[in-house]
Amino acid sequence: MSHVCPECNRTFGTELALALHRDTCGRDEMQCTECGARFAEARATRDGWHYECPTEGCDGAGVGEQLYALNR
C-alpha cells in the first residue's frame, strides 16, 4: 500500500516515510503568479537576495512582485 502526501502528492512506501516527509513538506514554499508553479524557496534563489521562478521559460521574478511565499 502506498501513502500519498496530501500537500504535494508525493508517494511513499511506508507510513513512517510519509510522516517524516510531512514534517517539512510545504515549508518555505513559494508560488509564481506568472506561471502558477509552486516550488521550494531554495530553488528560486542562488544568493538569498535575488529570486526568479525556476520553471523553464517563465519570467516571474521578485518576492512580492510575481513570487509569493505560501503560508501554511
Automatic annotation (TrEMBL):
Domain of life according to the entry: Archaea
Domain C2H2-type: 3-23
Pfam families with a match to the protein in the record: zf-C2H2
Gene3D superfamilies: Classic Zinc Finger
Protein name per the record: Transcriptional regulator
